[in-house]
Amino acid sequence: MSDDILHRHRTVWQQKPVLRRLYEDWYREIVAWLVPGRTVELGGGTGNLKEYVPTVCCTDVVMLPWLNVVADAQRLPFQSESLGNLVLFDALHHIENVTLFFDEAQRALRVGGRIVVMDPYISWASWPIYRWLHSEPVDCLEDPLVFKPQRADRVPFDANQAIATTLFERNQPQFHSRYPRLAVQHIRRMACAAYPLSGGFDHPSLLPQWMVMPMLRLEPMLERLGHLLAFRMLIVIERQP
Ligand SMILES: C[S@@+](CC[C@H](N)C(=O)[O-])C[C@H]1O[C@@H](n2cnc3c(N)ncnc32)[C@H](O)[C@@H]1O
After folding, report:
1. With a 6 A CB cut-off, is 46 part of the ligand 1 pocket?
2. Structural domain span for residue 219
3. How far is C-alpha 83 from the chain's CA centre?
4. 145: CATH
């Protein structure tokens, strides 16, 4: 089932230039935040980060031919303080217990190493779209810092799209007191117009190719209203001594 979704996403990626153009900017921004050291992608799925970071170790809970290692973000198969960067693109909201992931990230990253997360952002504009037009649930009431008993019937695409928004807005003080050595360096609320119009991986695009660049030029202005309009959130966290 998860393999089928990832194979379908890879086909859409190859056939939808609008989507590739939007992701290109996001991957380039992620690359700009990386620090020297080994880079591991968790929940790598389609493996697209490799186009921008050819040396990345691309991992997922499911094995696919283009991935390097099978790894659950909650139990990382890497030595302590051995990694420079952990990248999660649309993966954080699929992790059952994010506290297990942050415990592991804190252990596996070297001092100065980074976690770079791109995830859905729940704004006034994105909530109805994610809630009614996307198959994954949005539960803004869940506290991601509370441990959940692990479900035997869980599948990799089970999710709560509100996880990043809750964790890095409402629960940021709690995150900080629980992980004082994981310092949030940067938060950007982004992807206000072109991305929703592109239809993502699941819907047809309403954005003709010729409108992509003009729309992208508008994005910085729209981002000033990110709390109201954004569909994505970029979070950069740095491991402190
Ligand atoms: C929406 S896909 C994103 C794939 C890819 N990063 C992309 O942007 O196309 C989410 C991925 O997270 C993976 N995943 C789910 N639970 C995970 C876990 N506990 N640890 C690591 N990856 C997980 C899924 O298998 C899936 O490939």
Report:
1. yes
2. 2-239
3. 18
4. 3.40.50.150
